[in-house]
Amino acid sequence: MNIPNALTLFRIGLIPVFVILFYLDFPGSYIATAAVFAIAGMTDWLDGYLARKLEQSTPLGAFLDPVADKLMVAVALALLIERYNTLWFTVPAIVIIGREIVISALREWMAELGKRTSVAVSYLGKVKTTAQIVAIIGLLMMPPVEGSLWYQANMLCLYVAAVLTLWSMLIYLHAAWPDLRGKAEENR
Questions:
Q1: In sequence order, which residues have a C-beta less than 8 Å from that of residue 82 and are 6 or more positions away?
Q2: Nearest Cα to 6, choosing from 88, 64, 83?
């Protein structure tokens, strides 16, 4: 066990704390929930930085890090779908969750072919993740007030994250397309 892996496990351990705080009703509960999500976002950056800086990358960390990220984002979006309960929130949230599932499956399949590097995390993926984290923190911080500037700004950020999500998915699928097509042709 090293520091980056411990941070990743800590992030996974924050998920039940996050869910409990989301449902508790106390003064400051919105801020507390957003803070836990923000801490998870910071540990996501920190564990990757430390793994590279300390040369402590491990197969366990390479597996757990993206799982922890996707779990936290999917759980947060699922809870926010319940809170916001509108088509305008649900559509971008489902786009983001669906993309994460598709890309996880694609990476697993490409790894089986020995070509995982062709769908490695890109700069656009990092921008997408940042937009998701910013949008989710903003939406967690305050109760939903549809006409407010805060609501509109965070919904815009969520839509930007959804567009970046689709864009990055298309880039990954394009990179993998020759292998996807080749595999499909072999099965005919």
A1: none
A2: 64
Task: Catalogue the long-range contacts made by 180-183 (C-beta closer than 8 Å, 24 or more residues apart).
Answer: 183/113
Count the Cβ atoms, other than its own, within 10 Å of residue 138: 18
DSSP assigned state of 86: S
CA distance 139 to 144: 8
Rounded to an integer, what distance in angstroms lies between the CA atom of residue 46 and that of residue 69? 13
> Average per-residue pLDDT in the chain?
88
Query: Contact 168/124 with Cβ under 8 angstroms?
Result: yes
**pLDDT of amino acid 128:** 87
Would you tell me which CATH number, out of the four given (3.40.50.300, 3.90.1720.10, 1.20.120.1760, 2.60.40.10), belongs to the domain 3-186? 1.20.120.1760
Mean pLDDT per 10-residue segment, the chain (188 residues): 92 96 95 96 89 88 87 96 94 95 85 69 81 94 88 94 92 83 57
What is the tens place of the pLDDT at every residue in 39-83? 999 998 898 889 889 988 888 888 888 889 899 999 999 999 999
Query: Rounded to whole angstroms, what are the CA distances from 141 to 42, 77, 84, 151, 174?
Result: 17, 14, 13, 10, 37
Handedness of CA 28, 129, 61, 75 (dihedral sign): positive
